[in-house]
């Protein structure tokens, strides 16, 4: 039977009302139910005596009740029930709060198992509101489910039991030889044991299988997406024009840049179509690398498309490449959402006729009606803003063009493997020489008046400043929104100065307009949420003030800091935080001590976890139920190998219908 079509409400013990509670937990079908895993377990067989327990720690104590329950009404709504137990050596004073039902059920001289924190003195012990089970009942391992109001773990447990009865033996998704190869238990065993383990070891065995299942599904899904593109290099480009390109630059490329360009140019003439990620910290000069590769592709006779996540970035790239290629015969055009309809039509026609060599744009570029004569390279900038699907849909245009991706987000290796799969990676691990060190300061809000004065000074000297504050749609009412703060700043603090406001709820067009005004220098102080983090270049901006800095991830702060220090003037990054906690201060101090984006990302990852560092939204990957992409790296690597192996023989997964269903289920919920 198809469990994913079976509505939860028809399972024994559920019904209409309870089904709604399950829905709140994301459980709609029988399939969802059997995949709703316990978050922990209580092993009732692990009993100790009071003397074996450390005071203050939770434990299971097998004990006999020795005094009847005494009831004490403390006040309305609070009734205490007290009684004594003994484990044979020590008397345990037990207090139960409000639970009349439990208190009534207890019988003197019966044996129970008490689970909870044990507070011990020399001669006695006490437990407050322990979980109490009859000794003869409390033998196995009890699953504890993430529960909700009116839907307790106990009820969920009962329903899962009924659900598992209903499904019967669960057919396996993987053939026997793969189970053997990767030392996995059967799916049936895994599902049953993850809910109701017979013994503790089985939990790990079951978990491993389910993690494998989930990561394999993820991996296969991503690989299938990627395999929409052919990998054979149908556009071999034998000529290397990088030196010619370098002679156009007003500076000498760094060794890291040259190495990355050489990697790409080798790809262009390789057996397989280029799929390369160039990863480099803010300011490492990724644009010049892209430029060299695009120049080479164009000189080999092909068209090139460069895609940026925002209009302002696309426009900036357009302007700088126009300048750089001035004097060459390369024809460049800009295509964004705000390009006028008639102009758009002209550009599209010219692209189709091959009259444009380099097209720079935003999402408008990937619309279906843009056609190329001979597209040779697609280059995406700051790629983490694009989903895989968007990337591949541009790549599908034309005759499987080469693909170059640039990202400023440092990514741990296994994570990179997941997100970029078969992409090759070049790292720019060197900053151009002569970069000014940005001075970073960490202060409390008591310094605001001085900071404002400092900003006024900078602006009076002809420079510009960013002020970044908390998100505008933040419900946290004690923090000012960007809008409120901007109002306050323009009316009270910076009267007579030109302020601009940028926040996430503005339309892209409005944002771009403000950004343009800032880039032109008409706006002197830009008050903004984090939307400025993407690689805009305003060399005249020298102050970056970040309010409530402790609320941001370090990598994010680092990206923000990278918005200044791009010109000839000394630049400053001021982090304001009133958070006195040791961990918060330590984090922010790290930022002060280093400018190395990889080091910062590493620290972020270790202390805040992948959720913050790589919010699902940002990396665009589906939410996982049991696997953890950072913890389960070993299984992840096995899955990557296994997925490749499976797809080699069976690219359409014809013999894995259940995996196919799981893949579409997993990817349905994301914006792939
Ligand atoms: P990012 O990697 O953050 O995209 P950019 O490509 O925007 O960095 O480069 C940042 C700045 O550094 C630009 O102004 C660019 O002209 C300059 N730049 C890039 N490469 C070099 C180099 N080798 N020497 C000097 N300046 C460089
Ligand atoms: Mg950039």
Automatic annotation (TrEMBL):
* Domain named Helicase ATP-binding: residues: 267-428
Pfam families recorded for this chain?
Answer: DEAD (PF00270), Helicase_C (PF00271), RecG_dom3_C (PF19833), RecG_wedge (PF17191)
Which EC class heads this enzyme's classification? isomerase
The GO terms describing molecular function are: 3'-5' DNA helicase activity; ATP binding; ATP hydrolysis activity; DNA binding
Keywords from UniProt, A to Z, are: ATP-binding, DNA damage, DNA recombination, DNA repair, DNA-binding, Helicase, Hydrolase, Isomerase, Nucleotide-binding
The catalytic activity of this protein is classed by the Enzyme Commission as: 5.6.2.4
Q: Which GO terms describe its biological process?
A: DNA recombination; DNA repair
Q: Which residues form the Helicase C-terminal domain?
A: 450-606
CDD domains in alphabetical order: DEXHc_RecG (cd17992), RecG_wedge_OBF (cd04488)
Q: Which reaction does this enzyme catalyse, per its entry?
A: Couples ATP hydrolysis with the unwinding of duplex DNA by translocating in the 3'-5' direction; ATP + H2O = ADP + phosphate + H(+)
Q: Which domain of life is it from?
A: Bacteria
Entry-linked PROSITE patterns = HELICASE_ATP_BIND_1, HELICASE_CTER
Q: Spell out the Gene3D superfamilies in the cross-references.
A: Nucleic acid-binding proteins, P-loop containing nucleotide triphosphate hydrolases
Q: Which NCBIfam families match?
A: PRK10917.1-3, PRK10917.2-2, recG
Role, per record: Plays a critical role in recombination and DNA repair. Helps process Holliday junction intermediates to mature products by catalyzing branch migration. Has replication fork regression activity, unwinds stalled or blocked replication forks to make a HJ that can be resolved. Has a DNA unwinding activity characteristic of a DNA helicase with 3'-5' polarity.
What family is it from?
Belongs to the helicase family. RecG subfamily.
Q: What is the protein's name according to its record?
A: ATP-dependent DNA helicase RecG
Source organism: Eubacterium coprostanoligenes
């Amino acid at each position: 039977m198809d469990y994913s079509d079976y509505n939860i409400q028809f399972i024994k013990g559920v019904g209409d009302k309870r089904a709604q509670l399950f829905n709140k937990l994301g459980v709609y079908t029988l399939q969802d139910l059997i995949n709703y895993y316990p978050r922990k377990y209580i092993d009732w067989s692990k009993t100790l005596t009071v003397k074996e327990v450390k005071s203050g720690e939770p434990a299971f104590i097998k004990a006999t009740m020795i005094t009847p329950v005494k009831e004490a009404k403390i006040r309305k709504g609070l009734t205490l029930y007290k009684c004594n137990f003994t484990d044979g050596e020590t008397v345990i004073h037990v207090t139960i709060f409000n639970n009349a039902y439990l208190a009534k059920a207890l019988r003197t001289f019966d044996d129970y198992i008490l689970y909870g924190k044990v507070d011990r003195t020399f001669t006695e012990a006490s437990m407050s509101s322990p979980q109490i089970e009859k000794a003869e009942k409390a033998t196995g391992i009890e699953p504890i489910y993430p529960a909700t109001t009116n839907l307790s773990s106990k009820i969920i447990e009962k329903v899962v039991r009924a659900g598992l009865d209903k499904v019967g033996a669960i057919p396996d998704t993987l053939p026997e030889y793969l189970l053997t190869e990767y030392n996995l238990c059967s799916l049936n065993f895994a599902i049953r044991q993850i809910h109701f383990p017979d013994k503790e070891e089985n939990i790990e065995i079951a978990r491993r299988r389910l993690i494998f299942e989930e990561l394999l599904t993820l991996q296969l899904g991503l690989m299938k997406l990627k395999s929409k593109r052919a990998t054979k290099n149908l556009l071999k480009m034998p000529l290397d024009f990088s030196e010619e390109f370098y002679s156009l630059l007003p500076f000498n490329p760094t060794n890291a840049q040259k190495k990355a360009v050489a990697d790409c140019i080798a790809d262009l003439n390789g057996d397989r179509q280029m799929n390369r990620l160039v990863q480099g910290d803010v300011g490492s000069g990724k644009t010049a690398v892209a430029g060299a590769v695009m120049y080479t592709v164009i000189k080999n006779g092909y068209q090139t498309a460069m895609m940026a996540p925002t209009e302002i970035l696309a426009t900036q790239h357009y302007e700088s490449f126009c300048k750089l290629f001035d004097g060459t015969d390369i024809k460049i055009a800009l295509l964004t959402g705000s390009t006028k309809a008639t102009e758009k039509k002209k550009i599209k026609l010219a692209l189709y006729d091959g009259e444009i060599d380099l097209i720079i744009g935003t999402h408008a570029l990937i619309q279906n009606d843009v056609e190329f004569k001979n597209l040779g390279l697609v280059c995406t900038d700051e790629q983490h803003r694009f989903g895989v699907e968007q990337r591949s849909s541009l790549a599908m245009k034309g005759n499987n063009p080469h693909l170059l991706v640039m990202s400023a987000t440092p990514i741990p290796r296994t994570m990179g493997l997941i997100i970029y799969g078969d992409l090759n990676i070049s790292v720019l691990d060197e900053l151009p020489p002569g970069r000014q060190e940005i001075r970073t300061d960490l202060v409390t809000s008591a310094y605001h008046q001085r900071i404002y004065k400092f900003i006024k000074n900078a602006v009076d000297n002809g420079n510009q400043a960013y002020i970044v504050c908390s998100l505008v749609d933040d419900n946290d009412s004690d923090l000012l929104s960007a809008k409120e703060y901007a109002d306050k700043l323009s009316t009270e603090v910076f009267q007579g100065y030109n302020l601009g406001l940028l926040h996430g709820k503005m339309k892209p067009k409005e944002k771009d307009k403000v950004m343009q005004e800032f880039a032109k220098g008409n706006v002197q102080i830009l008050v903004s949420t984090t939307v400025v983090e993407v690689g805009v270049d305003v060399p005249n901006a020298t102050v970056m003030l970040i309010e409530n800095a402790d609320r941001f991830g370090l990598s994010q702060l680092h990206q923000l800091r990278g918005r200044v220090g791009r010109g000839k003037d000394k630049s400053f990054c001021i982090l304001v935080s009133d958070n006195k906690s040791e961990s918060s201060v330590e984090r922010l101090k790290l930022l002060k001590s280093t400018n190395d984006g990889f080091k910062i990302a590493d620290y972020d990852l270790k202390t805040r976890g992948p959720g913050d560092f790589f919010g699902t939204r940002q990396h665009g990957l589906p939410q996982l139920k049991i696997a953890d992409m950072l913890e389960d790296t070993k299984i992840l690597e096995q899955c990557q190998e296994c997925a490749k192996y499976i797809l080699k023989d069976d690219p359409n997964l014809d013999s894995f219908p259940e995996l196919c269903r799981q893949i579409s289920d997993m990817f349905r919920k994301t914006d792939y």
